[in-house]
Write a structure and sequence with these properties.
This protein is mainly β. It contains no helices and 5 strands. The radius of gyration is 11 Å and the shape is globular. It starts with 12 loop residues before the first strand and ends with a strand.
Length: 69
């Protein structure tokens, strides 16, 4: 899956629908920390922790904020 261009912007807040490797689908709000290859490192606002997401498992994403502060 090709990432939407703005998801590469460090600091953006994104709402996404994500499918885990176990097939569990969740809705998450994340702040993008970095994107390397097929992986998105982000702070998951919902869980309050850093997570790494496989880009291919992002089913849908919507930009919430471009604010990088």
């Amino acid at each position: 899956m090709a990432l939407v261009q703005w998801i590469n912007k460090v600091g953006c807040v994104v709402d996404m629908i994500y499918m885990s490797q176990k097939g569990i689908i969740t809705k998450r709000s994340i702040r993008v920390l970095s994107v390397k290859g097929d992986y998105i490192r982000a702070f998951c606002i919902d869980s309050g922790a850093q997570r790494v997401f496989l880009a291919a498992n992002v089913l849908a994403a919507e930009l919430v904020s471009r604010d990088v502060s």
